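mind reviewing both lines:
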Amino acid sequence: MNIGVSEDNLLFSCSVWRPQGKSYLFFTQFKAEVKGAKIEHAMAYSQAAAGGQSDIPLKQEEFEITETTVSHREGKFRFELSKLMIVAKTPRDEL
């Protein structure tokens, strides 16, 4: 797991992955939730980069992104998840 913050403290990123790339684990579902921020970008991968290979993203119909969650789509997700990446933005306090 890797968590990062931008210099202006407005963007946060979180990546959860299996360093070896493809996982032997079998996922029936997944859900990641962000609190105190809104998701700007997210991506889920069936295989993470390893051994000179690139990340292989899940098909868009396999997962859904809302303002605060990234989760599997019931009946569409093919049970392969090796990496999940989220970038979220905190609300800016205006004077």
